[in-house]
Amino acid sequence: MEWLAKLFTKYPEMAVYLAVGLGYLIGRLKFRGVGLGVVTGSLLGGIFIGNFFHVPVSDQAKSIVFLLFLFGIGYSVGPSFFQNLKGEGWRWAVLGVFVPVIGLLTAYAVAHFLKLDPGYSAGLLSGALTESPAIGTASEAIRSLSLPDELKQQWIAHIAVADAICYVFGTLGVIWCCSSLGPKLLGFDLRAESKKVEANLGIQRSKLGVYSAWQPIGFRVYTIPQDGLVVGKTVAEAEQSVPGVRLFVERIRRNGKIFSPLGTSVLEANDTVAVLGRTEIMIKALGPLAREVADPELLEIPVASYDLYTTSKTIAGKTLQEIVDDVEEARGVLLKGISRGGHEIPIGTNTVIERGDLLRVSGSESAVEELAPVVGRVIHPTDETDFAVLGIAISIGVLVGAVLTIPIGHLRIALGTSVGTLLAGVTVGWMRSVRPWFGIIPDAAILFMRSLGLAAFVAMIGLKAGPIFVQAVREFGYILFLGGIAVTLTPLIAGLFFGRYVLGLNPALLLGGIAGAQTMIAGVAAVQEKSDSQVATLGYSYTVAFGHIFLTIWGTIIVSLMT
């Protein structure tokens, strides 16, 4: 043990990475589908190692990895944050602000009542509201205080203690409230209401999954029989013969010759046609006697599957059905999926496309390339990060956070370098939604920044908190746990009633909305399981950007209020 202690003292980075590795192992452990997650796991891993060994951790190292994480978070939520302020999104924006504000007020009231120091108060807030980035902003706020270093380090260690204690119910509380308590309080049948939302969105269901005729299977070749249902019909009439679905006749072989038909071309018996669509829909349109054949020459069609980034007003704000009806360039292209803020959303005829949505489309190369400029821009796979924008943006964010103070009543609250970096990420993310070629950072790089950045940061916090953890839990454990319950449930329940009866939001989507406002994706997963539907993801996608931004900033605010 003495040898290992000397090794950790000489090479503290070894202990940090060991804590991260242990954290990911802990984060993978689940009980009935619920786990602590890798961030809390890394915090506990750091606390465990720190309890036995003194590991010197550099504040500069913590800041570097944490700023990368914050920029990644801001970059991810930037497009949806500004988009949700427009149109009908204002109601979700209000909910996304209301829940975090109630969370802050509740955390302050509980901390004041329990006479907690700023460290325990910040940990109570970050753990109970399941927003670990608040650990970093609170730590920075404490370090900026004019106090003895020993006291500041003690308070920062208290953040980790309180966060670890309160995070357990913070997670379970969101899951329970969203999936069980919420529907009971509002008095509605979650499964039935979700089905109504699906019907309104034009989503067609099949057993356990949510499926849609808008999703393609691919190209198939069929020979039209003598008494085929489409004999004598034009290509346009045949393509529209099955209401509510999409299929396209791309090429025809007739009397040995191959040609690309027009919409007015008439289909004849014994034509061999290359059709794009779902197999069961093709058979329904062509008739049960249509025979699938192998014709490689007819299928020599360049097929493209692209990700299209939505920036155009021609597309943004319209439903999928409106796009099909009004946008001529949409012909011959099928939608495979929609990603909004990194989350998959259900697809139906009445699903509204928003600016910043990523559309995964498939079709002939010419059709997809014709549609691309109408939607916005093709996002080609890339592994190159625009480090120039990344470095300059973080530098500007740090500078703004260091010099800017915000007056609130008699208080003057320093914005802080971490909050400045978060806002820099939001700004760059939004700018990229307007100019998709600007500041490109691949999803894999963002995932790395968000995952390892926060895990390494909280692991280092845990290493410093380890020596006092056991004693602190003995003295304040049950008090913090009970206080955390109040801080977790109060904003969720208030958000339920405010969202339903003041904002008039759909109750099924509202459950996802309050989970998003507390940035807990596990709450949405629980709602999806109970409702057998994915529609709650829509509510989550509207509010999660606001939750990440405001709850992270609250780390700075709660320290200022408690000092």
- The parts where pLDDT drops under 50 for at least 5 residues are 206-217
- Estimated helix fraction: 55-70%
Overall shape: elongated
- Strand order across the biggest sheet? 7-6-8-5-9
Number of helices: 19
Largest sheet: 5 strands, antiparallel
* Estimated structural class: alpha+beta
Please compute the radius of gyration using only Cα atoms: 27 Å
- The whole-number mean of residue pLDDT values reads 83
Give the N-to-C terminal Cα separation. Answer: 40 Å
Number of structurally distinct domains: 2
Which band does the percent of strand residues land in? Answer: 5-15%
Query: How many extended strands?
Result: 16
What does this entry show, briefly?
The protein is α+β, with helices and mostly antiparallel strands and 563 residues long.
Task: Characterise the protein shown here.
It is built from 19 helices and 16 strands. It is an alpha+beta fold and 563 residues long. The chain has two domains: 2-196 and 384-562, no CATH class; 225-289, Alpha-Beta Plaits, CATH 3.30.70. The chain has a five-stranded antiparallel sheet with strand order 7-6-8-5-9. The protein has a five-stranded antiparallel sheet with strand order 12-11-13-10-14. The protein has a two-stranded antiparallel sheet with strand order 1-2. A hairpin with a 2-residue loop joins β3 and β4 (209-211). The two termini are 40 Å apart.
